[in-house]
Each structure stands twice: as structure tokens, then as C-alpha cells.
Amino acid sequence: MNNFNPRKRNKEEVSYWLSYSDLMAALLIIFILILAYNILQFKVSQEELEAIQVQIKEIDQTNKVIDKLEKEFGEEIEINEDTGDIVVKSDILFDFDEYELKEKGKNFLEDFIPRYLDVMIGDKEIKDNLYRILVVGHTDAKGDYLYNLELSQLRALEVVNYIFSEEIKTSHKKEVEKYIEAIGRSETEVKKSDNGEILSDESRRVEFKFELRTLEKIKKALEGIPNP
């Protein structure tokens, strides 16, 4: 007797095709996920490349500013060769534990500020890419943090106030209002020797820093890149 059952065979065929279609659907989903991942990686790579390109531009433009500062001042003042920061020891500007400019400090600023602004503001290429100029006060680690914070802020503000005084002869005062800021760091960035000892004399200082607009572009570009 023939026990062939067409219904049973149909069920087996349907089951087979359902399993096959499920497999194909799963493979399609995997393919889509791989494709999406590759597209995302390509997008991230493009953003990273753009960030690197902007960073290269930032370094190039920073070097141009540093070169001009070095040509202007030579070895008269301390210029950080990597950042262009200019460091002025506090004993040039102030008496110990005081924030009012002494005569020596005023004389220094009357010579330094016009020349500094001629580079930063007088040069159109630099000015067009300038984001801000920071006058930053620093103290040593002696005494209370809040006291040192107030002292460093007052010293930075005293320098900025003097920049806008009649004693400073420069045509860039109005323009520099858009860029200049006074900041106090207290004892948070003290100078140390190789063995970790705090160097109090070197720590008491005022720094003139600049930031370019390309730095802000780097920050924004990096913010758009997801962490790996």
C-alpha cells in the first residue's frame, strides 16, 4: 500500500521555504547592519580628517604669530616657542603681595603693549583669525587659595586697566576691547622643578596668551566625533 500523503509533503515544503526565507531575511539584516556600520565609520573618518586638517591649520597659523612675536621682541621677553605665551615675572610689575602696578611695571607695559598689539591687532591676517587675548594672573602656593585667587584676578585686571589708560600709546585700544580678557588662576598652575619642588618666584607671574578661531573649530569638530 502506498502511504504517500500529499498534505504532509506540502507542510514539509512550506516549512522548508519558511526556514529558507527566515535565513535570507536574517542575512539581509546582517548585511544592512554591516553596511550601516561601514557608512558610520566612513563618516567618522571624514570628521576626524577634517578635525586634523583644521588642527594643522591652527598649528601653522600659531607658528606665524610666534614668528612675528619673536621678530618683534627677540630675547627681550620670554616667549613659549610652542604656544606663543609671553611670561612676565610678577616682580617686574608688582611689589610682593600687592596688585597695584609699580613704576617699573608701568614702564614695561608702556613699551610692551603697543608692540604686542601691533602684532596681534595691527596684522590683518592675525586679527581676522584672532579669537581672544588672555591676561592671566598666577600666584605661588603660599597662603590661602581664595586669597591668591583674588590677588591673581586683581593683578590681571590691573594690567588690563592700564592697557586702556592714556599712558599706553596705541591706536588699537578700541579694537582690542573685543578680544581681551582678564583671568586669575590663583595657585592652580604653579611652576615646579624637575624633582617636583614648587618654584615660588617663577610661579608668581602674569601671562599674555592668545587663542585663534581655528582652535574653536577644532573643539567643535571633535565634539561631533563619537568616542570609540
From TrEMBL:
Highest taxon, organism lineage: Bacteria
GO cellular component: membrane
Transmembrane segments: 20-40
Cross-referenced PROSITE patterns: OMPA_2
Domain OmpA-like: 81-214
Keywords, ordered alphabetically: Membrane, Transmembrane, Transmembrane helix
Record PANTHER family: LIPOPROTEIN YIAD-RELATED, STATOR ELEMENT OF FLAGELLAR MOTOR COMPLEX
Protein name: Chemotaxis protein MotB
Protein source organism: Halanaerobium saccharolyticum
